[in-house]
Design a protein that fits this description.
With 367 residues, the chain is α/β, with parallel strands linked by helices. Helix content is 47%, strand content 18%. It folds into two domains: 169 residues, 3-Layer(aba) Sandwich (Rossmann fold); 116 residues, Dehydroquinate synthase-like - alpha domain (Dehydroquinate synthase-like, alpha domain). Strand 8 and strand 9 form a beta hairpin. The structure holds nicotinamide-adenine-dinucleotide.
């Protein structure tokens, strides 16, 4: 990893302190976390998770909290992107109210990116904001969504269209929890890891070398890559906490990615969609002379080695993809704005492209 990305963070035991959030990355940390949280000045905790993670880790974590004398309830909602909506947030807010949680409480987001987004937004709004802790259990959430304070839910018009910025106080990452991930979910998480490789050539070379071991879930290497990924993320978040400038480099692949994810009714996983989005946005960068064919080849090669898709599937409704892209938060009145990495990590390339040109490029001129 480029040493630039260590700037601004202060090492703490097994992790780093970023501007808003202390991050700990430690295999087996699930066991230790309740004791650490007991030392905080927080009256009561609510663990919120999804229906799958509840059975794998939620019941156990609740017991560990109780073992150290913490007051805690476990709340859950059905797993999957289909739960990432305002109805789920409303239900959770009612449940927290029924348990009479006050403002001296904190919420634990135990799960993948869906849980993190739903819980983050719930914490942002409940009683005008309560602190929350990320306890990410998918690789995607560990390397990306658990840090940065972006919280959102989907609406009938597209992905992440209702949200808020609310930074977690702690991001407690136990890479061991990824051992129980289904193969497809684990692999799809690499979409976001490859994104960091597109930003930082040093990181990409390390990823290319370590990929086979990472796909075999080599625990030590996994912890290193999770921490390095989080350091890259923290660098941009600390520079631009509200996503108005340089942090937008982290949206590489997401404008087209969100479009295909939404159009597939979330049959395509987030990381798979981002993989397609990065490849297509990379192709647009080549067509505009910002990237070389060789750079695009190396991106596609890495994605394909992992087994991630790079092309938009033919069966997806093109109008629906374009409708979702039109809703993208970065779009202005006339053009779709794409942000792709360039030579300098501090100077992302902004590409403004009209809708007709975009359609020609991503659907190969046949629509
Ligand atoms: N806020 C952000 O900055 C940000 C960044 C990137 C992605 N996201 C969001 O993250 C979401 C995708 O996250 P995801 O890929 O983690 O999906 P997810 O949260 O839906 O989790 C995928 C599946 O894995 C299961 N699971 C979670 N942990 C498990 C474990 N340890 N063992 C076994 N099963 C487990 C879940 O129950 C679910 O079925 C998308 O909604 C995306 O928009 C947010």
């Amino acid at each position: 990893m480029n040493e630039l990305f260590r700037q601004g963070t202060e090492p703490i035991e097994s992790g780093v302190r970023t501007r808003f959030t202390d991050v700990v990355v430690k295999a087996g940390y699930l066991q230790e976390a309740p004791e650490i949280l007991r030392r905080r000045d927080i009256g009561r905790y609510a663990i919120i998770t999804d229906s799958i993670v509840a059975r794998l880790y939620g019941d156990k974590l609740q017991q560990l909290f109780r073992d150290v004398g913490l007051q805690v309830e476990l709340l859950e909602f059905p797993e999957g992107e289909q739960s990432k909506n305002l109805d789920t947030v409303g239900t959770l807010v009612d449940q927290l109210g029924a348990y009479e949680y006050g403002r001296n409480s904190a919420i634990i987001a135990l799960g993948g990116g869906v849980v993190g987004d739903v819980v983050g937004l719930t914490a942002a709004g409940y009683k005008r904001g309560v602190p929350y802790v990320q306890f990410p259990t998918t690789l995607l959430a560990q390397v990306d969504s658990s840090l940065g304070g972006k919280t959102a839910v989907d609406t009938s018009h597209g992905k992440n269209l209702f949200g808020a910025f609310h930074h977690p106080i702690l991001d407690l990452v136990d890479p061991k929890t990824t051992l129980t991930l289904p193969e497809r979910v684990y692999k799809s998480s690499f979409g976001e890891v490859v994104k960091y490789g597109a930003i930082d050539p040093h990181f990409r070379r390390e990823l290319e070398e370590g990929l086979d071991a990472l796909l075999r879930k080599d625990a030590e290497l996994l912890s290193k890559f999770v921490l390095d990924s989080l350091l890259i993320k923290a660098f941009y978040v600390d520079k631009d906490p509200f996503d108005k400038g340089v942090r937008q480099i982290l949206n590489f692949g997401h404008t087209i990615g969100h479009g295909v994810e939404f159009a597939s009714d979330y049959e395509l996983l987030h990381g798979e969609s981002v993989s397609i989005g990065m490849s297509q946005e990379g192709r647009i960068a080549v067509s505009r002379g910002h990237w070389t064919e060789k750079e695009l080849y190396s991106l596609n090669n890495l994605l394909q080695r992992i087994g991630l898709p790079t092309e938009i599937p033919d069966y997806l409704d093109k109008q629906k993809i374009m409708g979702a892209i039109r809703q993208d938060k970065k779009k202005d009145d006339r053009n779709v704005k794409l942000v792709v990495p360039g030579q300098d990590p501090l100077t992302p390339i902004e590409i403004k492209i009209g809708e007709d040109d975009l359609v020609q490029l991503i659907f190969r001129a046949d629509s």
